[in-house]
Specification:
With about 325 residues, the protein is an alpha/beta fold. It has a single domain, classed as Bacterial extracellular solute-binding protein, family 7 (D-Maltodextrin-Binding Protein, domain 2), CATH 3.40.190. Helix content is about 45%, strand content about 20%. It contains 15 helices and 9 strands. Strands 1, 2, 3, 4, 5, 6, 7, 8 and 9 form a 9-stranded mixed β-sheet that branches. It is globular, with a radius of gyration of 23 Å. The protein binds pantoate. Pantoate (PAF) binds next to loops. Belongs to the bacterial solute-binding protein 7 family.
């Protein structure tokens, strides 16, 4: 009697599973992924993270669900890199400064005045030079799905309008913790103070530093206009970003799923580029309204003043690659 009853229960469960809609059955197999980034959800990082999540969730038909952790919620950018390596974090949209210790060659893109404009930078990243750098990540426990973008970095400060390299001399300026930025600034007499962005915000508020430098996308996202009076459009360095996935996760994916991740990485990259194009068009008006004094500078005078520091970079990086980069402009 007991056996008949057990068989009946088993058959009823089987019947229920058979008539269950595909979506409900899928939720059992859905994989939740953690994606970290340093800025707000409304920033260019947030736009890249959402584009990645929307693409992957759609093309995988809900097999992967991406949970986003903005504003350093999972730790500083350096901690996020460790999290990707250990597998505690699955995905990140992140600056290149965070991976300088792992892939020193990536610092090449921080050489001042190497990139002419956004299109030139995108040609370089999408071409063999950019692809070669992305290919170095797997040996460090991370897979680089695509380049993202922040834009060209500009100088802000609270002391005076900066029009020439001489005007910038003696200013205490926060830089990312990145020796290439420090070398360029040292050369023109700026006093670089490398620290995290979180510490920079505290130091700008307490007046222990005079300024910082970041792309317009970050200046808007961090409401730098509430902390800084003068913005000089130096465009001294192009800042890419990266869309990264933990190798621990990536290795377990089927080849079909790997393609979905790659495709979603590209979607994030394109979204970030659109975001930067848009912010380049609209943000100056907004920043002026917010009270910033915006100054156009002679970029060439800054470039010339920093040129001698290239001797240092030629020792550190492959000179042939540095010298090849200006020629990538012709692919526009
Ligand atoms: O200046 C930096 O450290 C980076 O540009 C930032 C703002 C953290 C974005 O990754």
């Amino acid at each position: 009697m007991r056996n008949i009853w057990l068989n009946w229960v088993a058959l009823s469960i089987l019947a229920l599973i058979t008539v269950m809609p595909a979506s409900a059955a899928d939720t059992k197999d859905e994989t939740k992924l953690k994606l970290a980034h340093a800025l707000s959800s409304t920033s260019h990082y947030g736009a890249g993270a959402s584009a990645f999540a929307n693409s992957l969730e759609t093309i995988s038909k809900g097999k992967f669900i991406v949970e986003k952790f903005p504003n350093n919620k999972l730790g500083s950018e350096h901690e996020v890199i460790e999290g990707l390596q250990s597998g505690k974090i699955d995905l990140a949209v992140i600056s290149t400064s965070a991976v300088m210790d792992l892939i020193p060659e990536i610092g090449m893109f921080d050489i001042p005045f190497l990139m002419h404009d956004l299109q030139h930078a995108r040609n370089v990243l999408d071409g063999s030079i950019g692809k070669n750098i992305l290919s170095k990540f797997p040996e460090k426990g991370i897979v680089a799905l695509a380049w993202g973008e922040q834009g060209f970095r500009h100088l802000t400060n609270n002391v005076r309008p900066v029009l020439t390299p001489e005007d910038a001399r003696g200013l205490k300026i926060r830089t990312p913790q990145n020796s290439i930025h420090v070398a360029g600034f040292n050369y023109i007499g700026i006093l670089p103070v490398p620290m995290t962005l979180t510490d920079a915000v505290k130091s700008l508020k307490d007046g222990s530093i005079d300024g910082q430098e970041n792309p317009l996308s970050v200046i808007i996202a961090t409401q730098m206009y509430n902390m800084q009076k003068y913005l000089s459009l130096t465009g001294h360095v192009y800042a890419p970003a990266l869309i990264l996935v933990s190798s621990k996760l990536y290795k377990q994916l089927s080849s079909t799923d790997k393609k979905l991740f790659q495709k979603s990485g590209r979607a994030a990259c394109l979204k970030m580029r659109d975001f930067v194009d848009d912010i380049e068009k609209r943000s100056l008006e907004r920043l002026r309204k917010e009270g910033m004094q915006v100054t156009e500078v002679e970029r060439a005078s800054f470039a010339m003043a920093m040129e001698p520091v290239y001797t240092e970079f030629y020792k550190k990086f492959d000179k042939r690659i540095i010298d090849a980069i200006p020629f990538q402009r012709k692919f526009q």
